[in-house]
Write a structure and sequence with these properties.
Layout lengths: L2 E12 L38 H13 L3 E2 L2 E2 L2 E4 L9 E4 L6 E8 L7 E12 L3 E4 L8 E4 L6 E7 L6 H18 L11 E11 L9 E6 L2 H20 L7 E6 L4 E7 L9 E2 L6 E2 L2 H9 L5 H12 L3 H7 L3 H13 L3 H19 L10 H12 L5 H14 L3 H8 L7 H14 L1 H8 L6 H11 L6 H13 L1
Parallel strand pairs: 12-13
Antiparallel strand pairs: 1-10, 1-11, 2-6, 3-16, 4-5, 4-15, 6-7, 7-10, 8-9, 11-12, 13-14
Helix pairs in contact: 2-3, 5-6, 7-8, 7-9, 9-10, 12-14, 12-15, 14-15
Length: 479
């Protein structure tokens, strides 16, 4: 390729607080329009903001988890612009001296070495309201819903270190994993709790001069981020190749067409006329506060992945899958705590548990088979009470009824047959009824062995001990 993409991301993380950042209104999603407002978030004259301390706690934890330095003294600023969903005519944000600075995340793409992506800053700010068009509960025209106004956000700004859409998605997924793992954001991209602005430019390969960037605004899925970046890269290359010039602007991505379109010219910092908010004093964060927050951090996903590989002997892929969410990881660990066979527990959590969760649309938090019950099932396999195949039948019944695995096994008569005499009787009947296949096997066509195994398991209704079946079949056929 003649051109090198350069990508930086600005991610808005909506914080999982009960109340807004500068007032006591609820942040519950989906309430009646304009039912969660007060003089502060409506920007009425004389109403004064009061900072929500939980927002600061969450910002510190996000910064520590992304290797940022916590700023001892940060200030809030007024970001001035005029839009119908911004009732004050300005947004309270941070400009100079944001709360977190100079962090990084390492990403790894398949077959490549880890790459460090710089994080310029993380700052706190309030969200704007939402414009509503068409028949959306506010009549046929257009309206504004200010429930979201003053909802707390963290804006995470990366360095322009990303060089492809795949790198951008990998970075986003890791950041998404961290903030949901910390419990500071629900990560619901459809509801806008985690959304991204992508700054995209291209420059000739080998150049040190960055190209003119376009900002793609408010993309709310990993799939759309990838599509939007790839389209924008090609659009800019085609424009340059045709003799045109890329202009700095804000663009919107249309998922239906897969294209970006111009929205407005891109503002610079001076356009917003930032100045310190006179109603909010500087925020001073002591070393003791930072260290207390650090001590409250959970084991982070990367750390837990490493422990799963080192202490439990899991493969890197398994460790990555099992740390996709904190709840799934905790479920796995609870299973290992009562059944000391990490690989077996991992296989069932990644297999049957995940399948059943996906099929039923259930979250791991609401899984009807608790980890202790799963461990009981695995112990029945280990001690030979049931086979692995029968265990899947038992698991399905556990999922539906909530009964203990041993209860199901006893009620349905599913105990594995390990009586060699009984199995030999079945084998003798199968061999007698299939003399032709016996001759094939004995003449060297050993692939037919699987046929005999299947027939024996079918005749025993899946209860015969598979290892014993194989052993006795070999003996009989070669005898």
């Amino acid at each position: 390729m003649k051109y090198q993409p350069v990508i930086g991301l600005e991610v808005h993380v909506q914080l999982l607080t009960d109340t807004k950042i500068f007032c006591g209104c609820s942040t519950t999603f989906g309430s009646e329009p304009n039912s969660q407002t007060c003089p502060v978030c409506l920007g009425l004259p004389g109403a004064l903001p009061v900072l929500n301390g939980t927002v600061v706690e969450y910002a510190i934890k996000a910064g520590l988890s992304t290797n940022c330095t916590i700023t001892p003294r940060s200030i809030f600023a007024r970001k001035n612009y005029f839009y119908p969903d911004l009732p004050k005519g300005y947004q309270i944000s941070q400009f100079e001296d944001p709360i977190c600075q100079n962090g990084w995340l390492d990403i790894t793409l398949a077959g490549q070495e880890p790459k460090r992506i710089g994080i310029t800053r993380i700052h706190m700010e309030e969200d704007a309201g939402k414009l509503v068009h068409g028949d959306s509960g506010m009549g046929d025209g257009s309206g504004v819903d200010l429930n979201r106004a003053c909802t707390p956000l963290l804006e995470v700004v990366s360095e322009p270190d990303l060089r492809s859409s795949d790198e951008a998605v990998a970075y986003l997924k890791q950041l998404h994993q961290i903030v949901t793992w910390l419990g500071i954001c629900d990560g619901n991209m459809e509801e806008g709790s985690f959304r991204c602005d992508a700054n995209v430019s291209v420059m000739p390969v080998g150049s040190k001069t960055l190209g003119t960037r376009a900002e793609i605004k408010n993309v709310n899925s990993f799939k759309f981020v990838k599509q939007a970046i790839e389209y924008e890269i090609l659009r800019q290359i085609d424009l340059i190749e045709d003799g045109g010039t890329v202009v700095q602007e804000t663009r919107l991505f249309d998922p239906n067409s897969g294209k970006t379109r111009s929205m407005r010219s891109k503002e610079e910092a001076h356009d917003y006329r930032y100045f310190p908010d006179p109603d909010l004093v500087p925020l001073v964060i002591s070393d003791q506060w930072v260290e207390r927050s650090r001590s409250e951090l959970p084991e982070l996903p990367g750390q837990r992945q490493q422990r799963f590989m080192t202490d439990l002997g899991l493969l890197p892929y398994d460790a990555e899958v099992l740390t996709a969410s904190r709840a799934l990881s905790d479920y796995f660990e609870a299973g290992v705590a009562v059944h000391d066979n990490a690989k077996a527990v991992a296989n069932w959590v990644m297999g049957e548990i995940t399948r059943a969760l996906n099929d039923s649309g259930t979250s791991i938090d609401a899984c009807p088979v608790p980890p202790e019950r799963l461990a009981e099932l695995l112990k029945l396999i280990d001690n030979g009470t049931i086979s692995g195949k029968i265990a899947k039948t038992v698991f399905d019944e556990m999922w539906k009824s909530g009964k203990a695995p041993l209860t199901i096994v006893e009620e349905q008569g599913l105990v594995q047959v390990s009586d060699s005499g009984a199995i030999e009787g079945i084998i003798d009947e199968i061999l007698a009824a299939n003399a032709g296949q016996v001759e094939e096997y004995r003449s060297g066509k050993e692939k037919v062995f699987g046929f005999f195994v299947g027939q024996v398991m079918k005749a025993s209704k899946g209860k015969a001990n598979p290892a014993l079946v194989n052993e006795l079949l070999v003996s009989r056929l070669k005898g």
